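Quarterly update from the structural biology core.
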Amino acid sequence: MLSPIVLFVYNRPWHTQQTIEALQKNDLALQSDLIIYSDAPKNKSDKNVVEDVRRYIKGIEGFKTVSIVEREKNLGLANSIIDGVEKIVNKYGRVIVLEDDIITSPYFLKFMNEALEFYKDQERVWHVSGWNCPINTDGLEDVFLWRFMDCWGWATWANRWQHFEKNVDKTIKEFNKQYIRRFNLEGVENFFGQVIANKEKKINTWAIFWYATIFKNNGLCLNPTQTFVENIGHDGSGVHCGKSEAFVSNLSVNKSIKFTDKADENQIALERIQVFYKSQKKPFLVKVINKLSRVFSGKNIFK
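Predicted structure, tokenized:
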């Protein structure tokens, strides 16, 4: 059984088109059901572009079926994803999820469906990601398991998603210093800061709470060693996304992925990803100079 694909779109016609055209090139596209959730405009300035997106998605072909859910009120990205994923995964038992800025390899759907089938009965595996950051792949197998949840093209099962909970106060209460450090991959990045930012109403997100749910249940996430997706939303157009090319790498064209039976965190992959995140942190002085350069000239003197 192939998993349905759920795509969440809003106000980016060009990004949506790139996402669809890449997905149409997947070997399993013609055998897959595509469900598209289109959020309603949150203000008058978004109305025209939302309508542009809706006109485009109504003409989409190249899949077994295409279903469109047009929100009558704006839910926001987080609430739209939580609601849509819950409805579809409970109906079909599994789901593949994309947002409107994800370019996929032609073998993305093959990888995701095979992973969903292979790990369906391995209770410790909660999440399948199609993405991996650009790391040294020497000595690594085709896939690896680890604690962290990537949401740039992902999948899960109904019996895992049923535990999802977005409860900010409860999450903060349940995480002690030791938990937080491990949650932050031994301190290489402040992921838990996103939970605090949700508490302070600075952001409204869902993914950090799915990661927290998996983490609290001692679950693991599957990643390909070579990414099957690219996020094109780091051009400043996405929600909570700035501009960056640091996460870009060549898309995998591996048709024959070998999965692992070992339900343990891969320490080699973890250490290399920790190195990657450390490499993205600029020294404090560089940050200060960059900020001053933007203020005085509008140019960043450090690339």
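The beta strands are 5-9, 33-38, 65-70, 94-99, 102-104, 125-129, 143-146, 154-157, 220-224, 229-231.
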